[in-house]
Amino acid sequence: MYPFSYVKAKSLKEAGEFLAAHPDAKLLAGGMTLIPTLKARLAQPSHLVDIGGLAELAGIKEGAGKLLIAGGTRHHEVATSDAVKKAIPALAYLANLIGDPQVRNRGTIGGSVANNDPAADYPAAVLGLGATVVTTRREIAAEDFFQGMFTTALAPGEIVVRLVFPVAKRAAYAKFPHPASGYAMAGVFVAETATGVRVAVTGAAPGVFRWKEAEAALGRNFNPAALAGLAVNADELNEDIHATREYRANLVAVMARRAVAQITGK
Amino acid sequence: MAKVEITVNGVKHSRDVEDRVLLANFLREDLGLTGTHIGCDTSQCGCCTVHVDGLAVKSCTMLAVQANGANVVTIEGMAKNGALHPIQQAFTECHGLQCGFCTPGMIMAVAGLLKYNPNPTDEQICHGLEGNLCRCTGYINIVKAVKRSAELMSGKK
Ligand SMILES: Cc1cc2nc3c(=O)[nH]c(=O)nc-3n(C[C@H](O)[C@H](O)[C@H](O)COP(=O)(O)OP(=O)(O)OC[C@H]3O[C@@H](n4cnc5c(N)ncnc54)[C@H](O)[C@@H]3O)c2cc1C
Ligand code: FES
Ligand code: FES
Questions:
Q1: Ligand 3 center to A7 CA (angstroms)
Q2: Mutate to test the pocket of ligand 1, among A6, A19, A34, A105 (most ligand atoms within 8 A of CB)
Q3: Which of A231, B4, B80, B116 lies 20 to 30 Å from A141, alpha-carbon distance?
Q4: Contact between residue A151 and residue A207 where contact means Cβ atoms under 8 Å apart
Q5: pLDDT in tens, A193-227
Q6: Chain B neighbors of A100, CB-CB under 8 A
């Protein structure tokens, strides 16, 4: 690890001001992405501004058809929260599939969406449910927030304060994890929302995306059979030592069917 | 440098540490508690698992300064007055280890798991130990040891 200075922020305001004054400083939340990155010497921040444990970033609330999850909420809290299990059980299920218990005990939802790893799980739920990302400066719709591999709409110094999820009628997530890393080789989040069916795919492409053909087909007939014969365009998917594009395209179709079957029971 | 005050296995330690020092290295090098192992560079093996304020975490993926003010329990804090912790006893009885390198982290992860789920199924045990790798046992006897731990901790002999 290259040397850096550690700063414990006492408030979001203080963290924001520190970042504005130090362009090479970086936020530290759960550290489950950032610390491995530092250990591998893939980043060299001047300072780490620790926002872990800030009261302003804590809490899960439900009401008026919305589920609010603060940016500092750890994966384990989302996985075991009664409010989440009641409002959007698929989100609690997804959180319980992230990494392993030790990672879930420290990693946060704000850190995960800010990082936007193309194989991370939360981006599928955020896009699949049409959630809003509330930052220290504005509200950003999921569609505008995720901008491809490790890229988001966040400006330097902007902090994710909370996620606002509209409660879906029904939703499910199916993930094919990489057997060693646990990250998604393909993960598909399917939701029946007030504005129609949404299908979001993570792990397969350079960034999370909506599979519009599947949405249209499921909008007509919400059943795994409605997806028969549909395929994502393999040319736009990732290819690496783990899987070819074609294999990933097939995984996406299978995960989509499994997610719908979780909901319909067949 | 930062000043930290960390309680480890009930003893409060005040030290000056470099900001980039990992909790795992602090425990091993500053406090001499070498029961916490380091088995990888990638936060995947779980050998370094300790409890911070009651939660199982990978001490190689946390800075010592992040644990300032916290209560840490390591494998050295599990046995009490010379008597093995029931999980340590179960690993011994069930042959839940071979070389033993993964065992301190395994035991701390099992302690974390049983806190939330005192009577886990085989599937829940495997899911609960996903963050811990063992190169020797093939996991079968580890799963047995977890079941035995659950029995011992619920008072069954
Ligand atoms: C072994 C292992 C397995 C994993 N498996 C999975 C998996 O299966 N699926 C998955 O989705 N993830 C997985 N992860 C990643 C994990 O979910 C991380 O917790 C998450 O990506 C980052 O959250 P964090 O709170 O730890 O953020 P940090 O590591 O602290 O920060 C990550 C980045 O986000 C920035 N940041 C943090 N918080 C905020 C905020 N509130 N606003 C703006 N920027 C912020 C930081 O500056 C940094 O750039 C795994 C990690 C490990 C170590
Ligand atoms: S040393 Fe491997 S996970 Fe910590
Ligand atoms: S007993 Fe050797 S690594 Fe687990």
A1: 38
A2: A34
A3: A231
A4: yes
A5: 999 999 999 999 999 999 999 999 999 999 999 99
A6: 46, 130-132
B59 touches chain A (CB under 8 A): no
Cα distance between residue A191 and residue A262, in whole Å: 11
* Domain edge (last residue) among B59, B77, B95: B77
Contact A181 B44 (CB under 8 A): yes
Kindly list the structural domains of chain A, giving each domain's residue range(s) and its CATH number in brackets, ordered by start: 5-50 (3.30.43.10), 55-166 (3.30.465.10), 170-264 (3.30.390.50)
Question: Are A63 and A143 a contacting pair, CB within 8 Å?
Answer: no
ipTM above 0.90, yes or no: yes
Phi, psi of B2 (to 5 degrees): -130, 150
- List, in sequence order, every beta strand (DSSP E) within chain A: 5-8, 26-28, 47-50, 60-63, 66-70, 132-135, 139-141, 160-166, 170-177, 184-193, 196-202, 209-210
Residue A31 to chain B, least CA–CA distance (Å):
7
Q: Looking at beta carbons, which residues of chain B come within 8 Å of A181?
A: 44
Nearest CA to ligand 1 atom 45: A111
Percent of chain A with pLDDT over 70: 100
* Helix (H), strand (E) at residue B12: strand B11-17
The pLDDT tens digits for B26-72 are 999 999 999 999 999 999 999 999 999 999 999 999 999 999 999 99
Determine if the pTM surpasses 0.90. Answer: yes
| Average pLDDT taken over every residue of chain A | 97
Distance in angstroms (rounded) separating the CA atoms of residues B59 and B75:
12
Name which of B5, B26, B43 to mutate to probe chain A: the one with the most chain A Cβ atoms within 10 A of its Cβ. Answer: B43
The CATH number of whichever domain residue B18 belongs to comes to 3.10.20.30
Handedness of CA B107, B109, B112, B118 (dihedral sign): negative
